[in-house]
């Protein structure tokens, strides 16, 4: 069982986790930064995915899982994201979430990390929390691969 964390700081991604050969191609992953030199601002505090759940048969989008649902829940200083019915391989090493920040736009990206993929699909609930957010409006883009890149864009207000 691999346990690891990803933290994003205004376009930088810091990764502590699986060996580099298991990371998605082109993944930028410095492990740390000198004291007082780390960028400040929004950061990906944590992420997780639920257990492999069986699908309910073909949905309106013609896939194994029910329709994707992106729920964004703002609270003071942070934003919680839940992606319900995310369809991925049934035996990934992990399903990672990364954060890129561009002004008041937060880009969350999901990606499955596979070592020995199985010939099956599962439905997962993917969660992530972004913290260290100043009050105000943010455009949030959540993207994932599902027969091509799919994105959901919403505007939220952090109190």
Description of the molecule:
It is a single chain. Helix content is 0%, strand content 53%. The protein contains no helices and 10 strands. The chain has a 4-stranded antiparallel beta sheet, with no helix packed on it. The protein is elongated and about 45 Å long. The chain starts with a strand and ends with a strand.
Q: What spatial order of strands do you see in the largest sheet?
A: 3-8-5-4
Shape: elongated
Q: Share of helix among residues?
A: under 10%
Low-confidence runs: 1-38
Mean of residue pLDDT?
78
Order of helices and strands: EEEEEEEEEE
Strand content: over 45%
* Terminal CA distance: 37 Å
What is the radius of gyration?
A: 16 Å
Number of helices: 0
- Judged by helices, strands and strand pairing, the structural class is mainly beta
Biggest sheet, open or closed, and with what strands and sense? 4 strands, antiparallel
What's the total count of β strands? Answer: 10
């Amino acid at each position: 069982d691999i346990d690891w964390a990803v933290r994003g700081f205004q376009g930088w991604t810091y990764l502590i986790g699986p060996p580099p050969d298991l990371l998605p191609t082109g993944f930028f992953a410095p492990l740390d930064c000198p004291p007082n030199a780390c960028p400040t601002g929004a950061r990906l505090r944590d992420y997780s995915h639920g257990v492999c759940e069986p699908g309910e048969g073909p949905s309106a989008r013609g896939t194994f899982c029910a329709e994707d649902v992106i729920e964004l829940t703002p609270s003071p200083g942070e934003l919680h994201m839940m992606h319900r019915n995310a369809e991925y391989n049934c035996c990934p090493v992990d399903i990672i979430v990364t954060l890129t920040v561009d002004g008041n736009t937060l880009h969350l990206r999901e990606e499955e990390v596979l070592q020995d993929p199985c010939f099956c699909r599962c439905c997962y609930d993917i969660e992530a929390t972004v913290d260290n957010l100043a009050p105000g409006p943010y455009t949030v883009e959540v993207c994932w691969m599902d027969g091509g890149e799919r994105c959901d864009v919403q505007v939220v207000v952090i109190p």
